[in-house]
Structures are given as structure tokens and as C-alpha cells.
């Protein structure tokens, strides 16, 4: 084993319930020879990937000390990465951050973040937004940036004649603003004959997603607006819907650390409307239309304008497909390999 990928404890490494981190790790591991994924013991995992289920952190450390991989990629666990740097001195440790570092134990202080940079072979952020957050009240050496990958060859083929559908796909939680999407569609759809809107998602990923009060609220608003509401669905169904939808909306309230849904949308050939939150502009670049967060009226106007302007919609969709190529897994995996083999920065 050359590379060990370490998942956060709550991540489910299986196609029917994987979150964003598991999907990213699956793609990188599949592109990395002599590698394996470590996480909690699961009944089912991604096929074709070597997976080591461990009972707890102590069992994980014992396994890694025995196997002595050349590189250990720790995702989203600063304190574990620091521990491994001490207990696995023959391995080079890379810490990958998928969320705001200032919210993580061990990284809340500038001193803690400086220590992490000193102890790790690499600290890697998935966006420049997260890198800037890491460098709050700091100067000097900064973490590396490595965008999340998407395996373009595995996506469903974009429909030749796309449906006149406006799609929201994501978790039904306040941060993702599905209520804003429902309110905007309630204003826009009566002015768009022949168009429809759809929502896919639940409180969390997988078939066991709970029916929360907020999910009930959004479901009711969707029904009142004439929006179809599919609830939580497997990821392949989400991608199939994106391959057919004319417009995908990512109306996030919170600063997205990266914006994997936005990347999937442009790669699938949909025109993208998003908020300029966090890392979303790094994904959408100039191929997305941006609206102010929480502003349903502005979102409705953007939907109307894009739905009624087919040439612009098609141009944005084609530009999005071209932009998505830079995030293909083969390219990102090669960039990661360069980070691994480069000397550690002091």
C-alpha cells in the first residue's frame, strides 16, 4: 500500500448514501495505484476499492503503523492528522480540509494552524476560499489548493433535447436555501408556460434521511408552487436529472467550501444559477449567473431571464461543459500526485 485515504468517522463509503467527501475519496482512490480507504466498518462499500473497516481510532492507528503506507491522506480530521504525524513517522501525512478550518478543533487559533503546517507534509484546501479562511490572522506559508474532482466519463450523457426543467438538487436544510428556490419558482413558473421545476434531496444523504420539520415545510411550499419533490434519491438519479434539466439552481445561504453540486451541474450540460457564496464562484467562474443569497425575487428574475433566452442558456451550458474539464479526476489526481512527491515546505 502506497497511499491510505482516511475518511471522517461519519462518512458512509457506499454509492447509495455517500456524502461529498466519500465521493471525492472514491474518485481519487480509483485513480491512485496501490491505495486503500480506511473508515468505520460498513456492510457495503464502493465496489472495486480496497476498503479497511476499523472499529475506532485506536484500531486505525494500529493498522497504519503495521502497514506503513508512504502517504496518509487524512480528510477533515486535524487532530488525527497531528497524532499520525507523531505515531507514523515513516509516512508523509497530508491533511485535506473540506470545511471552514476556523470551525475545527485544533485549527481555531492561528497558533494551531501554524503548527499543523509545520507538522504536515501538506495541508490541502479544496478552494481558495478555504485557504483564505485558514490564513486568517496569519502570514507566510499557506496551505495548498486542490479542487474536488469529478470523473466526467462516468456522468450520464447530456440529453440532446433538454427538458424545460428548473432543478434544485441538494440537502433540504436551511444552509442550502431550498425554501428560497421554492419561493422563486412560485413567482417565476406562472410566467413560464411549458416549464416545470423539480426538487431532489432530503435532510441528509441516503434512504434513511429523516423527515424533519424543515423538510415538511419545503415540501409544502413546493407543492403549493407546483414543483415536483422527489425527496432523497441515489446519486445516479440526481446526475440523470441534471443531464436532462435546462437550468440547475444552487441558491446556498452559507459559504460553500467548494460546490460539488454546481460542478456536477455544469459538467452535465445544465445552465447554472448560483449565489456567490464561498467557493461557488471558483467552480462556476464566468459560466454561471449569480444572485444575492436569500433573495427569492432576484432568483425568480434570473430564472425568468435565462428560461426565456435560449441562445444565452445554450451558450452558458456549452461554456460550463468546457470549464468542467479542468476538474476531471485524472487531472486532479495528477495534481495531487505532484503535491505528494514535492518536498515539504518549511
Task: Please provide a written account of the structure.
Helix content is 39%, strand content 17%. The protein has 346 residues and is of the alpha/beta class. The protein folds into 2 domains: 3-149 and 328-341, Glycogen Phosphorylase B (Rossmann fold), CATH 3.40.50; 152-327, 3-Layer(aba) Sandwich (Rossmann fold). The strands form 2 sheets. The chain has a 7-stranded parallel beta sheet, with helices on both faces. Strands 10-9-8-11-12-13 form a 6-stranded parallel beta sheet, with helices on both faces. Strand 5 (92-97), helix 4 (110-119) and strand 6 (122-125) form a beta-alpha-beta unit. Helix 6 runs parallel beside helix 7, helix 6 packs across helix 11 and helix 9 (260-267) packs across helix 12 (310-324). The longest helix has 15 residues, at 310-324. The chain starts with a strand and ends in a 5-residue tail after the last helix. The model has no long low-confidence stretch (mean pLDDT 95).
- The end-to-end distance, rounded to whole angstroms, is 27 Å
Oligomer: single chain
CATH homologous superfamily (4th level) name of the largest domain:
Glycogen Phosphorylase B
Strand order of the largest sheet: 3-2-1-4-5-6-7
Report the count of strand segments. 13
Number of H- or I-type helical stretches: 13
- What is the name of the CATH topology of the largest domain? Rossmann fold
Largest sheet, described in full?
7 strands, parallel
Amino acid at each position: 500500500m502506497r497511499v491510505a485515504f482516511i475518511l471522517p468517522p461519519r462518512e458512509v463509503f457506499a454509492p447509495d448514501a455517500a456524502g461529498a467527501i466519500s465521493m471525492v475519496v472514491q474518485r481519487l482512490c480509483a485513480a491512485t495505484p496501490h491505495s486503500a480507504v480506511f473508515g468505520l466498518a460498513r456492510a457495503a462499500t464502493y465496489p472495486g476499492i480496497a476498503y479497511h473497516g476499523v472499529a475506532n481510532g485506536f484500531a486505525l492507528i494500529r493498522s497504519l503503523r503495521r502497514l506503513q503506507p508512504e502517504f496518509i491522506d487524512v480528510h477533515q480530521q486535524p487532530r488525527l492528522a497531528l497524532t499520525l504525524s507523531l505515531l507514523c513517522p515513516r509516512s508523509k501525512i497530508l491533511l485535506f480540509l473540506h470545511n471552514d478550518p476556523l470551525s475545527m478543533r485544533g485549527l481555531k487559533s492561528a497558533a494551531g494552524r501554524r503548527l499543523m503546517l509545520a507538522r504536515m507534509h501538506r495541508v490541502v484546501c479544496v478552494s481558495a476560499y478555504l485557504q483564505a479562511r485558514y490564513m486568517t490572522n496569519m502570514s507566510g506559508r499557506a496551505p495548498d489548493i486542490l479542487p474536488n474532482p469529478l470523473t466526467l466519463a462516468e456522468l450520464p450523457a447530456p440529453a440532446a433535447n433538454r427538458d424545460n426543467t428548473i432543478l434544485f438538487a441538494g440537502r433540504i436544510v436551511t444552509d442550502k436555501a431550498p425554501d428560497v428556490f421554492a419561493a422563486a419558482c412560485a413567482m417565476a413558473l406562472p410566467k413560464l408556460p411549458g416549464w416545470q421545476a423539480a426538487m431532489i434531496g432530503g435532510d441528509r444523504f441516503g434512504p434513511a434521511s429523516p423527515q424533519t420539520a424543515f423538510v415538511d415545510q419545503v415540501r409544502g411550499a413546493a407543492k403549493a408552487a407546483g414543483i415536483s419533490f422527489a425527496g432523497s434519491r441515489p446519486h445516479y438519479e440526481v446526475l440523470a436529472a441534471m443531464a436532462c434539466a435546462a437550468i440547475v439552481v444552487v441558491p446556498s445561504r452559507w459559504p460553500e467550501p467548494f460546490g460539488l453540486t454546481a460542478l456536477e451541474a455544469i459538467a452535465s450540460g445544465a445552465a447554472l444559477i448560483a449565489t456567490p457564496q464561498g467557493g461557488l464562484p471558483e467552480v462556476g467562474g464566468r459560466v454561471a449567473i449569480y444572485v444575492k443569497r436569500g433573495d427569492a425575487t432576484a432568483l425568480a428574475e434570473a430564472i425568468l431571464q435565462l428560461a426565456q433566452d435560449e441562445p444565452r442558456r445554450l451558450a452558458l451550458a456549452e461554456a460550463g461543459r468546457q470549464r468542467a474539464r479542468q476538474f476531471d479526476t485524472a487531472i486532479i489526481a495528477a495534481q495531487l500526485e505532484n503535491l505528494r512527491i514535492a518536498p515539504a515546505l518549511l
